[in-house]
Amino acid sequence: MNAAILIDGAFLRKKFHAAFKKDIAAENIHKFAQELLVKFNISADSLHRVYFYDCAPCSAKTSTPVTNRAFLFEKTPQYANGIQLLSAIKKLDFFAVREGALQFCGWKLRKSAYNKTPLTDDDFEPELHQKGVDIKIGLDLAWISYNHIAERVVFVTGDSDFIPAIKTARRNGVFVYLATLNHIVKTELSDNCDVCLKEGIKSFNCL
Question: Which of 82, 4, 97 is nearest to 52 (CA)?
């Protein structure tokens, strides 16, 4: 039976950084996908494709919150690193990247500066919201199941918003394997999957 892997990119990046205190690289993601197949006892030969869902870095132009100086996200190291990561993932064999948009929604005060005066630009961080990623995941789950692209889907997420899409896939005969990376999730999310793996990212040989 063919299998597809769907990875919520922002979720995986956050879990990896929290565990290993460094940013994830394409090589880590490739190894992680291979480990997923091993842990769910799925043959590598049956892999249809790995779908990685994330946003390209924000390219907005704005001004700093205190000094009102011009601020370009494209000039930041985070922008360059984000572009490099997505480019490297696209070059991996049997990987497809589905991109949403990262929207700048203003500046927010860092927790470390709540009681600080006077404030500086460094006391603020950009508030960024993903747009279009969740709908792409939901549509792909439905597309895979309705068109019989794969009989098994390995889904890496901790977001319960995907429950309706998971239910649709299962009603269409797809076996859904969930990897929550030890994230605390709603019981309804794990209950609506065929197999739920709760091991943390450190249990995967992805370094």
Answer: 97
Token pair 């209950």: residue: 191
C-alpha span between 148 and 115 (Å, rounded): 56
Q: Distance between CA 65 and CA 72 in Å, rounded?
A: 13
List strand residue ranges (DSSP E) for 10-136, in order.
Answer: 47-55, 61-63, 70-72, 95-109, 124-131
Are 158 and 131 spatial neighbours (Cβ–Cβ below 8 Å)?
no
The pLDDT tens digits of the residues spanning 63-89 come to 999 999 999 999 999 999 999 999 999
Supply φ then ψ for residue 93, to 5 degrees: -65, 135
* Structure tokens belonging to residue 104: 């700048």
Residue 1: pLDDT band (50, 70, 90) is confident
Mean pLDDT of 38-60: 95
